[in-house]
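Predict structure. Input: YggT family protein, 98 residues.
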Amino acid sequence: MRQRNSTGMFPKLISILLTFVQVVIVLYILLQFFGANPTPFVNLLNSLSEPILKPFQGIFHPIVFNEHSLDLSAVFALIVYSIIGFGIQKILAILKIK
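Output follows.
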């Protein structure tokens, strides 16, 4: 007999969305840090990350290491989105929303 998965569609959707946002932000941070050239992939990633990072722009000044720049506002956004996503997942688990 096959067991049904106890996780519903809505929590899975939240998890997928959170993972997408996290991957976009991490790639943005890495490409900015290493000074990636504006290729079509980098331009696509920048256009995807812009609305996600806009609320956090200017909160912190970037840290510059020689030629590398670490965007602390993007790191902060990653932390905030992760906490919010984790919180939503926990609330859905408590409410048993599927």
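Confidence is low (pLDDT under 50) at residues 1-5.
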